[in-house]
Amino acid sequence: xxxxxxxxxxxxxxxxxxxxxxxxxxxxxxxxxxxxxxxxxxxxxxxxxxxxxxxxxxxxxxxxxxxxxxxxxxxxxxxxxxxxxxxxxxxxxxxxxxxxxxxxxxxxxxxxxxxxxxxxxxxxxxxxxxxxxxxxxx
Length: 138
Fold this sequence. Notes:
Blueprint (H helix, E strand, L loop, with lengths): L3 E11 L4 E10 L2 E9 L4 H20 L7 E6 L2 H9 L6 H11 L4 E6 L6 H17 L1
Parallel strand pairs: 1-4, 4-5
Antiparallel strand pairs: 1-2, 2-3
Helix pairs in contact: 1-3
């Protein structure tokens, strides 16, 4: 049986401060792993690419050689990320698209699905919690 992971990511950015954070929700064998991460991006689009790249990089690190036989169902509520991955191109974000595609390369198969925000609430909540934690520290 091919290992199957469901990966949800979302980013949150505070436009006034330029602070960003991300949420990563990973589901495998009915077990959830949740992470809130600090991002360097200062805009939401950049943050969406960054959190997705971090999520795939971390998963590849955790799985090691098993990536070669792993399928990832990737869910994002970012239309720019979803559309850019489908086209393998983004006019203003090509470096970010290339980095994300490189992070996905170790996996046997990655299927990207755009979902409305209400279907991405786990990652959305994690991103907002991480962003609020950053703002409280500032």
